[in-house]
Amino acid sequence: MSKHRVSRRQFLNYTLTGVGGFMAAGMLMPMVRFAVDPILKASEGGDFIPTPQKVSEITAEPTRVDFKFEQQDAWYTSEVSNTAWVYKDENGEIVALSPICKHLGCVVDWNKDKANPDHFYCPCHGGLYTKDGTNVPGTPPAAPLDVYPTKEKDGFLLLGKAEPRKGA
Ligand code: FES
C-alpha cells in the first residue's frame, strides 16, 4: 500500500472541511457585504437639496429659508432640518449663508440687535457679522459665516453643502 494513500477518515475530514468552508463563505459573504456596503456606496456629497424658496421672491433683504433632506448615515436614514439666510446682492446674485455661528456654533439671526441694525447677530456671546457674512472684528467669531453653493431648478432655490467662504 502506498504511504500517500488517503484513508477514509482523512477523505471525510477533507470533504467536510471543504463543504463546511464553502457553506460558511456562502453565509458570511452577504453579512460582510451588508456591513461594508453603505461605506462603499458613492457619497452623495455635492448633491443639491431643493428648498421651498422661489428664486423670483428672493429680495435684497436676508430671508430665513428652512429646508429638509434625508441624510444617509451608514445604515441609518434620518430626516434633517436645516436653514439658510438668503438674499440677492447688488449684482442680483443669490447669496445663501449658513446660520451657524463660527464662534461656538449657535444660530445667528438677521437684524435682531437694535444696536447693530442690518447685521447678523449671535445671541450667545454677542457675535456680529455684516450682511455678506463677514465676522465683525472685536466680536467673538473668528471667521465669516459658511456659504451654500446655490442653483435654480424650476424656479426654486437649491442649496449645496455649506462650506467656508473662499479666501476666508
Ligand atoms: S457662539 Fe456665536 S458668538 Fe459665541
From TrEMBL:
<dbReference type="InterPro" id="IPR036922">
    <property type="entry name" value="Rieske_2Fe-2S_sf"/>
</dbReference>
<keyword id="KW-0408">Iron</keyword>
<dbReference type="Pfam" id="PF00355">
    <property type="entry name" value="Rieske"/>
</dbReference>
<dbReference type="GO" id="GO:0016705">
    <property type="term" value="F:oxidoreductase activity, acting on paired donors, with incorporation or reduction of molecular oxygen"/>
</dbReference>
<keyword id="KW-0472">Membrane</keyword>
<protein>
    <recommendedName>
        <fullName>Menaquinol:cytochrome c reductase iron-sulfur subunit</fullName>
    </recommendedName>
</protein>
<feature type="domain" description="Rieske">
    <location>
        <begin position="86"/>
        <end position="159"/>
    </location>
</feature>
<dbReference type="InterPro" id="IPR006311">
    <property type="entry name" value="TAT_signal"/>
</dbReference>
<dbReference type="GO" id="GO:0051537">
    <property type="term" value="F:2 iron, 2 sulfur cluster binding"/>
</dbReference>
<dbReference type="GO" id="GO:0046872">
    <property type="term" value="F:metal ion binding"/>
</dbReference>
<keyword id="KW-0479">Metal-binding</keyword>
<keyword id="KW-0560">Oxidoreductase</keyword>
<comment type="similarity">
    <text>Belongs to the Rieske iron-sulfur protein family.</text>
</comment>
<keyword id="KW-0813">Transport</keyword>
<keyword id="KW-0001">2Fe-2S</keyword>
<dbReference type="GO" id="GO:0016020">
    <property type="term" value="C:membrane"/>
</dbReference>
<keyword id="KW-1015">Disulfide bond</keyword>
<keyword id="KW-0249">Electron transport</keyword>
<keyword id="KW-1133">Transmembrane helix</keyword>
<dbReference type="InterPro" id="IPR017941">
    <property type="entry name" value="Rieske_2Fe-2S"/>
</dbReference>
<dbReference type="InterPro" id="IPR057415">
    <property type="entry name" value="TM_PetC"/>
</dbReference>
<comment type="function">
    <text>Component of the menaquinol:cytochrome c reductase complex. The Rieske protein is a high potential 2Fe-2S protein.</text>
</comment>
<dbReference type="GO" id="GO:0004497">
    <property type="term" value="F:monooxygenase activity"/>
</dbReference>
<dbReference type="InterPro" id="IPR014349">
    <property type="entry name" value="Rieske_Fe-S_prot"/>
</dbReference>
<keyword id="KW-0812">Transmembrane</keyword>
<keyword id="KW-0411">Iron-sulfur</keyword>
<feature type="transmembrane region" description="Helical">
    <location>
        <begin position="12"/>
        <end position="32"/>
    </location>
</feature>
<dbReference type="Pfam" id="PF25471">
    <property type="entry name" value="TM_PetC"/>
</dbReference>
<comment type="subunit">
    <text>The main subunits of the menaquinol:cytochrome c complex are a Rieske-type iron-sulfur protein (QcrA), a cytochrome b (QcrB) and a cytochrome c (QcrC).</text>
</comment>
